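Following the same procedure, sequence and fold were stored together, as reproduced here.

>
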Amino acid sequence: MITNDRLITAMITPFQKNGDVDYDAAKRLAIALSKSGSDGILIGGTTGESPTLSDEEKLKLFKEVKESVGDNARVIAGTTDNNNSKSIELSIEAQKLGVDALLLTVPAYNKPTQQGLIDHFNKIADSVDIPGILYNVPGRTSLNMTAETTLILSSHENIVGIKEASSDLGQITRIISESSDTDFRVWSGNDDETFSIMALGGFGIVSVASNIVGVQIKRMMGSILEGNIESAADQHKELLPLFQGLFWVTNPILIKRALNISGFNVGGLRLPMKDSGELEEDFSKMISRYDIDVTKT
């Protein structure tokens, strides 16, 4: 069950030298992630460069990754955008391929009303029989989904949680508090906020950094759950420069660079994303401080 998965990795999409999706590398990475602490793997999110992927590429990724990890990790499919009909079609096709859940992302560019968000997500959730996780990321979409809207949507039987990346701890605390008597989960959407959100009662993290340090993130989360807050805080502070450094340049540029530096070759990026080598020396020095888990599985 996706509602049992505390560490979900927003997986990057590997590309070959000619720019095609490297499905074999994607399968190897997904297996490595499942062995390095990831309970679930999100395919086709922003970290996976979803705006540059065709529907056919997304569906093949969903299928290949799910077949590769089997029951060792849940697969969450990023199937939604600012087109409701298309989102429904892709969600239905993803369900047919056996994915475990869907990511329901607040639409970018349209800037709908809160009622528009409610209707949009309810219609998508009505069209499938698998769980959906809402995703609120105002920094990407220029629109905040309010706590009230999230709580209304939480009553839908197929909407089981939210990836909250608003960085508004007041809003996030309200969602956690007012859904505490239900099975609705709140996952942090930002690695540097996992400690704070879980300390407030949040369930886990949909992580970028766990592409490379899943074991260490899982260990920190375990300390929180065991009530060893001092140890968890120390682990959080140790990982914080990495969490922040991965976003010195727009994600997923630096997480891909980090994987390639570590020796896990995932290729380059698709335009308009481009790694122009910004902060190369500083980034390499920062990354060298950390033990990269994914290469040891």
